[in-house]
Amino acid sequence: MARLTSLHVISAQEHLRDQVAHALRAALIAGDLRPGMIYSAPALAAEFGVSATPVREAMLDLVREGLVEAVRNKGFRITELTEQDLDDFTELRAMIEVPTVGRIARLARPEQLEVLRPIALEIVEAARNHDILGYLEADRRFHLGLLALAGNRRLVEEVGNLRKRSRLFGLNRLAETGQLTASAEEHIELLDLLVTGDAEGAEACMLAHMSHVRSLWADGQQRPGGS
């Protein structure tokens, strides 16, 4: 198996299961682990420099997230997202997030929203620098932090779970073409609308942003090595 560029040797002092799971997600995002391919725990363990046990445990975490599936006596297959999967995830998130953003625009104070501006700028900077993991982490903090202003903890948890299942794979190529930067800049546009209290505009912007993300998923799937 080719060396996975996103993986690194993990020290014994760290929480191996969580660290391995994080590195596996990074490999998925970078496209180092290919959808439809089967990977064994011992082979991946050799790449990490750890025993197979934390790798199996981490893979089971990813099974629960829907990112991989167990294949008896062989290992784990990277899950492929279908067009229907993409549509379903987008529809579910839009049903939750679009009206919630409108409510936040009506109720949140400008100073509460401005706390998110450094994160929005961080998303853009990460996209421009092709820092895929940095982009996704900042994007997660922005969206979940924004939704938290609605005051519904369960809503935030549910969207967080949906985001895990709809993880963007193979984003390196999209970053290189500039598509990721265009999506990143939409966070600033959304925040500007929210600060001015434009609920209708914020809802429209959020829906357009999610449609853009949906197209990025599709583009990533259609490219060789994408998912």
The poorly predicted ranges are: 223-227
The strand order across the widest sheet is 1-3-2
- The third-level CATH topology of the largest domain is Four Helix Bundle (Hemerythrin (Met), subunit A)
Q: Count the helices. How many?
A: 11
Q: Please tell me the CATH architecture of the largest domain by its name.
A: Up-down Bundle
Which structural category fits the helices and strands? mainly alpha
Helix content: 55-70%
Round the mean pLDDT to the nearest integer and report it.
84
Which superfamily, in CATH terms, is the homologous superfamily of the largest domain?
GntR ligand-binding domain-like
- Total strands: 3
N-to-C terminal Cα separation, in Å?
19 Å
Strand content: under 5%
Describe the global form: elongated
- Number of individual domains: 2
> What's the SSE pattern?
HEHHEEHHHHHHHH
What's the CATH first level of the largest domain? Mainly Alpha
